Amino acid sequence: MPRTLPLNVALRVAIAATGRHQKDIARRADINQWRLSRIVRNDVTPTPKERARLARILGKTVPELFGDEGVA
Questions:
Q1: Distance of CA 25 to the CA centre of its chain
Q2: What is the CATH number of the domain that holds 19?
Q3: Which of the listed residues 27, 28, 57, 72 has the most CB atoms within 10 Å of its CB?
Q4: What distance in Å separates the CA atoms of residue 35 and residue 30, rounded to the nearest whole number?
Q5: Positive or negative CA dihedral for 54, 60, 62, 63?
Q6: Considering the domain boundaries, does residue 1 fall inside one?
């Protein structure tokens, strides 16, 4: 079983893989840029809707980005 990366690392890698700025991802996900920054730093927990939007935009599943805790 592959090792699950901590929230901030998996999310940072997924954002970087898009080649877009975090600001663009926040706008596309309809999340405040400041809040996305806090989510990436693991300072706040994203809501289920935020998790789903980020996963869709980044082309990942919720568990890939957020692990088992991301599954509601």
A1: 9
A2: 1.10.260.40
A3: 57
A4: 11
A5: negative
A6: no
Mean pLDDT for 30-59 is 95
2 found inside a domain: no
Give ∠ CA 63-68-70 in degrees, rounded to 5. 65
Confidence band, pLDDT 50/70/90 cuts, at residue 1: very low
Domain count along the chain: 1
- Of the candidates 49, 72, 53, 54, which has an alpha carbon nearest to the alpha carbon of residue 8? 54
pLDDT at 67: 81
Burial class (CB in 10 A: 0-12, 13-18, 19+), 40: buried
Say which residues have a Cβ less than 8 Å from residue 42's Cβ, sequence separation at least 6: 6, 7, 8
